[in-house]
Design brief:
The chain is built from 15 helices and no strands. It is an all-alpha fold. The chain folds into two domains: 158 residues; 184 residues, Up-down Bundle (Growth Hormone, Chain: A), CATH 1.20.1250.
Length: 395
């Protein structure tokens, strides 16, 4: 989030913001689409080192690249965004795959952390560059150490014995003996004692690659309708709202709490992120099993807000605030409950791959929404201007 915010600030004149957003999303989408079929060959320890290096490298590239002079400078900054996107996509599918090795609380911790990242990342960047008066370069340079926290969390805080135990069970012939000699004590984040941790894709490294690839394709196909499709739908709807509709949801300043039209959009985003954080932290207390219901409700939100943009049906901006909060709740609920359902219902031998492969739906939904939004925002703004509401041109 910090890298994307900085890139949007630093992109050169004449370069649409949508180009930066797509540069952030498309590499992550491709990574999630392809990597689950081979990434099990790379140990988790190596993955974390690679992703931390990519994230830090993206920040450094954007920060040390000179200010915009020609197209080459912007291209270099976009390269930094691309590296960060690869780190984000690979990291998400890897950490969700790790949920297979740990107890149910691990998914709640992951959901809460990712929900908080939107709030803290964007908020920290805004605080540093506005309230503290730091330059974008100084902010990014000071943030380049943040991936070290990921390394510390993985190598020193996270109990690694379940992963190592799974690796050992592949290398021995007598699984019962290996379990007796190497089974770790499980508590807190650790998986229940009766969970077989050696049945994920990482336990099939000796299988022939073509046969395993075909098996994974069949696994992915079985995931589409129960898990991938509702997650895809909710992300298309909510990111079309965020990128294409929300910038046009404006009211007269004397009827709002703002002094400038540009204040509407970041406020909507902040309220949305609060909803996401709350719902992604909710699985220990509240579960949903019908993933399509909140996905369809999110589509209703999209239609309702498009109608508001076109016809100005709401008497107050506070109604939009409430809908944006509800939007965040629905999006977070579908995200975290999708993976909770996979963890509960998918067979143990397929679970690690399934958790990783399903992550393609969120990035895919954001990509589709990005293309829709580039046209929708222009169309909605032109409609408003033709009807005498030119606020979207005053941003």
């Amino acid at each position: 989030m910090i890298i994307l915010s900085a890139a949007l600030d630093l992109v050169g004149p004449g370069i649409p913001k949508g180009v930066v957003l797509l540069a952030d999303v498309i590499p992550s989408f491709i990574t999630k689409l392809v990597a689950p079929y081979f990434i099990h060959l790379v140990p988790y320890e190596a993955r974390i080192l690679i992703f931390a290096a990519l994230s830090a490298g993206g920040m450094l590239i954007i920060s040390i690249t000179p200010s915009y002079v020609d197209g080459g400078s912007t291209s270099t900054k976009l390269l930094g965004v691309l590296l960060a996107s690869l780190s984000s996509g690979g990291g998400e599918l890897s950490f969700l795959g790790l949920v297979h090795y740990y107890g149910p609380f691990s998914l709640a911790a992951w959901g809460s952390g990712t929900g908080g990242a939107g709030l803290i990342g964007a908020g920290a960047y805004a605080l540093a560059t506005t309230s503290l008066g730091l330059s974008v370069k100084a902010t990014l340079l000071s943030s380049a150490f943040l991936p070290v926290i990921m390394l510390v969390s993985f190598f020193t805080i996270l109990p690694l014995e379940p992963i190592r135990h799974s690796r050992r069970t592949v290398q021995v012939k007598d699984d019962d003996e290996a379990s007796a000699n190497a089974a770790p004590e499980r508590e807190g984040l650790l998986a229940p004692e009766d969970q077989d941790l050696g049945t994920g894709p990482s336990s099939h490294k000796k299988a022939k690659a073509p046969a395993q690839f075909k098996q994974n394709l069949l696994r992915a196909r079985s995931l589409f309708f129960p898990y991938m499709l509702p997650l895809l739908l909710v992300y298309i709807a909510e990111y079309t709202i965020n990128q294409g509709v929300a910038p046009t949801l404006l009211f007269p300043l004397d009827e709002s709490p703002f002094k400038h039209y540009r204040a509407f959009y970041p406020t909507y985003n902040a309220i949305y992120q609060v909803g996401v954080f709350i719902s992604r932290s909710s699985t220990p207390f509240f579960r949903i099993h019908d993933l399509y219901l909140p996905s369809m409700l999110q589509v209703v939100n999209l239609v309702l807000l498009i109608v508001q943009s076109l016809f100005d049906i709401f008497p107050s901006v506070y109604i939009v605030f409430a809908i944006m909060f509800w939007e965040g709740l629905l999006g977070g609920l579908v995200y975290v409950n999708t993976f909770a359902e996979i963890r509960d219902k998918v067979d143990k031998k397929d679970r690690e791959f399934s958790l990783s492969a399903t992550t393609v739906s969120d990035s895919g939904g954001i990509c589709i929404a990005g293309f829709i939004s580039m046209a929708m925002e222009v169309w909605l703004c032109n409609w408003q201007v033709s009807g005498g509401r030119d606020w979207c041109r005053r941003l």
